[in-house]
Amino acid sequence: MAQSELATKLGDYVEDAHAMESNVLQMLDSMIATTDDTQILRQLEQHRKQTERHQERLRDRLEALGRGTSLRKEGQTLAGALLKGVADQVRGDKPGKNARDGFVTEHMEIAAYELLERLAVRAGDEKTAQVARQNRRDEEAMAKKIAGNWDKFVDLTLAEEGIEAPKPRARGSLAR
Question: pTM score, two decimals?
Fold first, then answer.
């Protein structure tokens, strides 16, 4: 691939990552609006601030690459996020489903930043590779926070529905 084609492809990936973060901001707003637990709410608000920083870093890289954000990509991702936000407001089982959706989203972001970093390295753009690494670390940390709270999400979901259930004895002790 010629250097100009490689630079174009890198710009495309940075645009994609920026649009992805726009989508995540909308999803986080919906999750924040439907979360009652103060600890989880605090984590979501903190992650929203990180996501804004991710977007800013990506916008800076787009400017350095002589590009801007893609209105088409931003529009496509925002439309999906808005639909999800409406669904979040009316569905039951908000704690569990928000956690599930958040966990999946964090892993999608981790994959996107892995690919962006590797492409940036091949393009010789260490600054973009560094942005991808920084952003990915935040996504990995958030995924780990979600994974560390599965039982809490189940407890909150059951409480929301007024269901009482015994706590598990130990991790892995339940039949699968």
Answer: 0.84
